[in-house]
Specification:
The structure holds two protein chains of two kinds. Chain A has no helices and ten strands. By secondary structure, chain A is mostly beta strands. In chain A, strands 2, 4, 5, 8, 9 and 10 form a six-stranded mixed beta sheet that branches. A four-stranded antiparallel beta sheet of chain A has the order 1-3-7-6, with no helix packed on it. In chain A, a hairpin with a 5-residue loop joins strand 6 and strand 7. The model of chain A has no long low-confidence stretch (mean pLDDT 92). Helices cover 0% and strands 50% of the residues of chain B. In chain B, the strands form three sheets. In chain B, strands 2, 5, 6, 10, 11 and 12 form a six-stranded mixed beta sheet that branches. Chain B has a four-stranded antiparallel beta sheet with strand order 3-9-8-7, with no helix packed on it. Chain B is globular. Classes of the chains: A mainly beta, B mainly beta. Chains A and B meet through strand 5 of A and strand 5, strand 6, strand 10 and strand 11 of B.
Chain lengths: 115, 114
Amino acid sequence: GAGVSQSPSNKVTEKGKDVELRCDPISGHTALYWYRQSLGQGLEFLIYFQGNSAPDKSGLPSDRFSAERTGGSVSTLTIQRTQQEDSAVYLCASSSSGGYNSPLHFGNGTRLTVT
Amino acid sequence: AQSVSQHNHHVILSEAASLELGCNYSYGGTVNLFWYVQYPGQHLQLLLKYFSGDPLVKGIKGFEAEFIKSKFSFNLRKPSVQWSDTAEYFCAVIRNSGNTPLVFGKGTRLSVIA
């Protein structure tokens, strides 16, 4: 069946530009996560959506980062005024619960390069 | 917030060697524990998980992990590694209460050489 889909797969942008990254979770999955993966830093938690609850934004590194999830399905991660340190692979994952007692299903990620 | 420590950044083993990757977490309450694996060019996938019961859990491809509550540890083991086990391994922890996120360690890269 269809897995978690992320677009674009690669994004190169100039420093100072805004970018939007998209995630289509598995249908019916109520939980959606964004993580950032960079060399030596592993998987850094960014934001977590669970059903209709307020999102857990505790992992967002600065106010340049924001995310929304429309209709409990598709999510968009927005990075404003990108900086070179934002370069990383941005991973989206979904789960039928919160990953608490069911595994996360990951997308292939968006590789963001800020020049 | 809970945190996860993986002490080995990069492990290099010969085929048939035994593997143990360390994982420690900081939260004192009840947790669910996971190991995820990312093979080269592939997305992350679940290797094994612990929720409750027998602290020795078995996963896919001959991997196992042991939960030692007193040590806040969940080390991953495999008696005899294969070249195809070359991958990055991530330990993850989630609190067993409340609506809190799944937190990952920084990962351990395993290279298996022939």
